[in-house]
Design goal:
This protein is 44% helix and 21% strand. An 8-stranded mixed beta barrel has the order 7-8-10-11-12-13-14-15, surrounded by 4 helices. β1 and β2 form a beta hairpin. α3 packs across α4, α4 packs across α5 and α6 runs parallel beside α8. The longest helix is centred in the middle third of the chain and has 22 residues. The chain starts with a helix and ends with a helix. The structure holds ligand C2E and calcium ion (2 copies).
Length: 390
């Protein structure tokens, strides 16, 4: 009601305002002389909504994603204007938080794609279309496999495999990452336990699971994670949760507080994609972090760019001084291994060692002798396991 009143105050008497349903309002501005007027009204609305709203139990701030569609000659049917405004609103929403977007025919394809992904993911959760693959993490000095990272896979019934880079952002925007993330944690913990029961694993052997910043914003996320660990009999000490560096940089106090609570449960925290989020190394030890994962864009450019070499060397060195573990991601060549060993990096992950694989295949590898207490077969460089390379 308060928002409806505020919207009304932003308009002229002859303008029309309607609540279309849920949290959607529509404004019709007629007989305008220029587009500037529309933008003036838009800005007025954004400002009006930025003021906190008083509720019985405190205050809140509403945010609006505004989609604008216009008709120059006024000949378009109302339905198509409404549809275009709706499309533009989704585009504004996708850009995040408060803001507006003006309809552009190219938007349709993008918005339709996002909506299809969103609808598809809801069905995927119910229809068992999600699965996990696991990629081993290798100790660079001993060749031991020290853990596995769970990576989400989506097999779409018509479109085939859709990569996480495509669907995770949509899952984050739509909030679907919450149930999906819970599924990933539960499923990977169950599999981890199976692995434990079938093979003799080193005590330090761990499971890494990716957690989105959006999950950390949930007030009850710590309880939810604790419950999943209890139900799956997962030892918190064997779990590493990976969060991207941007979660720390955006200074999300609440998210960092959640990381402290998770750490208090005995879970280890890894900073993923390190080096891409512009955080400063010197602030690392003020965060509840145990592991630094150097982003694969750096690893890929090692040996070609002196600056990149220096950055990787510095990340390894400083992490060690701060008693943090360092894992290099995306190792594809033996030369990269040699560089990392020379820098003193102790742990790595990448196609050079092993691609992510389904659980069955992982078990097969283990039973074929990739027993984790056994050192990897040494090559001249001392690390490549011929079994893994296949
Ligand atoms: P990430 O956490 O950085 O995961 C590592 C990605 O690097 C994986 O891509 C993996 O397949 C790929 N990779 C591993 N070794 C190599 C290599 O040697 N070369 C190259 N070029 N790539 C390598 P993937 O599986 O496509 O996942 C992409 C991203 O999607 C992940 O990046 C992560 O941010 C996100 N993601 C995956 N699963 C989940 C999940 O369950 N939850 C959340 N929130 N995010 C996930
Ligand atoms: Ca990761
Ligand atoms: Ca990464």
């Amino acid at each position: 009601v308060q928002i409806a009143i505020r919207l009304q105050e932003c308009l002229r008497d002859e303008d029309t305002i309607a609540r279309l349903g849920g949290d959607e309002f529509t404004v019709l501005l007629q007989d305008l002389r220029s587009m500037d007027t529309v933008l003036d009204v838009t800005n007025r609305i954004v400002l009006a909504l930025a003021q906190p709203i008083q509720l019985d139990h405190g205050e809140t701030v509403a945010m609006a994603s505004i989609g604008i569609a216009y008709s120059e000659k006024g000949l378009e049917p109302a339905e198509s204007l409404l549809r275009d405004a709706d499309t533009a609103m989704y585009a504004a929403k996708a850009r995040g938080k408060s803001g507006y977007a003006i309809f552009d025919p190219a938007m349709n394809a993008e918005v339709v794609e996002r909506m299809q992904l969103e609808v598809g993911m809801r069905q995927a959760l119910e229809g068992n279309q999600f699965s996990l693959e696991y990629q081993p993490i290798v100790d660079l000095s001993s060749g031991d496999i020290t853990g596995i990272e769970a990576l989400l896979r989506w097999e779409h019934p018509e479109r085939g495999r859709i990569t996480p880079d495509k669907f995770i952002p949509v899952a984050e925007d739509s909030g679907l990452i919450i149930p999906i993330g819970a599924w990933v944690l539960r499923e990977s913990c169950l599999r981890f336990r199976e692995l434990r029961e079938q093979f003799t694993l080193d005590d330090n052997f761990h499971l890494s699971v990716n957690v989105s910043g959006r999950q950390l914003q949930r007030p009850n996320i710590v309880d939810q994670i604790r419950t999943i660990l209890e139900e799956t009999h997962m030892d918190p000490a064997s779990l590493k949760l990976e969060v991207t560096e941007s979660v720390l940089v955006r200074d999300e106090v609440a998210a960092v507080e959640k990381l402290h609570q998770l750490k208090a449960l005995g879970i280890k925290i890894a900073i993923d994609d390190f080096g891409t989020g512009y955080s400063s190394l010197s602030t690392l030890n003020s965060y509840p972090v145990d592991v630094v994962k150097i982003d694969r864009t750096f690893i890929g450019r090692m040996g070609q760019d002196e600056e990149v070499d220096a950055i990787v060397g510095a990340i390894v060195l400083l992490s060690r001084v701060m008693h943090l573990e360092v894992t290099a991601e995306g190792i594809e060549t033996r030369q990269q291994v040699q560089y990392l060993q020379a820098f003193g990096c102790t742990s790595a992950q990448g196609f050079y060692f092993c691609r992510p694989m389904p659980f069955d295949k992982l078990c097969k590898k283990f039973s074929e002798g990739m027993n984790l207490s056994v050192k990897l077969e040494a090559e001249a460089t001392g690390i490549l396991n011929p079994m893994l390379a296949a």
